């Protein structure tokens, strides 16, 4: 049986994990914070970890990226996208008016994961501008906290499954600001992932340049450009060594098993760049 580490049951990560592993013999281990998810696989307690890494609205998840690069050395084995549709959750009996409908004025605090909260800011500003916003470790934790603290006027932003698991009402469905909101997830582990077939593959690298000089990044990108290798993402992150010192994360739409990509990497290494391959893996799009 495959052992998979994931953020808490009822979170977007949980739903995304079940989507990827549908029909497979798998057991999920749930952890309240992302550090424990990473460490579960790093310490050999689970085969894989589920890592939310990027969102349509909020962009890259910096904490998760830093853990992937700086704290563990676990290769990426797959990526996939999953819709991130948030809902307002709480006890309707406590938050309704005399007509039995939701009364926004009765909500004094809204809890959620900071990424989920950011996906719903326009909705919150329009309907509940008076409410305190509190960030917690996951959307499912937010729902649980609301469940355990009745009669406070609290509500949570989270998943439908979390509402059902905790016996709370869905006060309003689909409160995400954009309908095309998706989260990109990474599956990390030491074993190659044997999922459904796909003809789309990616390779992710961590690159540090020897020094900063005019045209340095252009020289690196040229190694991919003249080979017509498409880069789907380039992100700079601080090396944590000194101010103004950065490394680059590059997602490449090509498998490392091709002829062109290894030669491109060899070319940028020849000019003094340090390159670490984070993984070469299948990429899955979402199919409802």
From TrEMBL:
Signal sequence extent: none
Xref: PANTHER family: PREPHENATE DEHYDRATASE P PROTEIN, PREPHENATE DEHYDRATASE-RELATED
SUPFAM superfamilies named among the record's database cross-references: ACT-like, Periplasmic binding protein-like II
EC number of this enzyme: 4.2.1.51
Transmembrane annotation, as ranges: none
Name of the protein in question: Prephenate dehydratase
Catalyzed reactions: prephenate + H(+) = 3-phenylpyruvate + CO2 + H2O
Annotated gene: pheA
Domain Prephenate dehydratase positions: 2-190
InterPro entries documented for this protein: ACT-like_dom_sf, ACT_dom, Chor_mutase/pphenate_deHydtase, Preph_deHydtase, Preph_deHydtase_CS
Pathway stated in the Swiss-Prot or TrEMBL entry: Amino-acid biosynthesis; L-phenylalanine biosynthesis; phenylpyruvate from prephenate: step 1/1
NCBIfam families per record: PRK11898.1
All copies of domain ACT, residue ranges: 205-282
PROSITE patterns according to UniProt: ACT, PREPHENATE_DEHYDR_2, PREPHENATE_DEHYDR_3
Keywords tagged on the record: Amino-acid biosynthesis, Aromatic amino acid biosynthesis, Lyase, Phenylalanine biosynthesis
């Amino acid at each position: 049986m495959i052992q998979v580490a994931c953020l808490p049951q009822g979170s977007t990560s949980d739903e995304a994990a079940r989507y990827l592993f549908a029909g497979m013999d798998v057991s999920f281990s749930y952890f309240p914070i992302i550090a424990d998810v990473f460490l579960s696989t790093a310490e050999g307690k689970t085969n894989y970890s589920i890592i939310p890494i990027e969102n349509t609205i909020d962009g890259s998840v910096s904490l998760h990226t830093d853990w992937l690069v700086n704290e563990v050395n676990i290769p990426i084995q797959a990526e996939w996208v999953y819709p991130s549709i948030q809902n307002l959750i709480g006890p309707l009996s406590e938050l309704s008016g005399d007509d039995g409908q939701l009364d926004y004025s009765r909500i004094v605090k809204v809890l959620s994961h900071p990424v989920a909260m950011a996906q719903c800011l326009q909705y919150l500003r329009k309907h509940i501008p008076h409410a305190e916003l509190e960030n917690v470790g996951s959307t499912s934790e937010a729902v649980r906290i609301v469940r355990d603290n009745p009669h406070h006027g609290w509500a949570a932003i989270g998943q439908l499954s979390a509402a059902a698991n905790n016996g709370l009402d869905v006060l309003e469905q689909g409160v995400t600001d954009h309908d095309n909101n998706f989260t990109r997830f990474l599956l990390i582990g030491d074993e190659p992932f044997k999922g459904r077939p796909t003809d789309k593959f990616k390779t992710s690298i961590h690159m540090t340049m020897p020094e900063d000089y005019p045209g340095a990044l252009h020289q690196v990108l040229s190694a991919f450009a003249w080979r017509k290798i498409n880069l789907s993402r380039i992100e700079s992150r601080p090396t944590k060594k000194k101010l103004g010192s950065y490394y680059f994360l590059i997602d490449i739409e090509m498998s490392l098993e091709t002829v062109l990509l290894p030669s491109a990497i060899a070319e940028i290494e020849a000019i003094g760049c340090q390159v670490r391959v984070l993984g070469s893996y299948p990429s899955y799009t979402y199919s409802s």
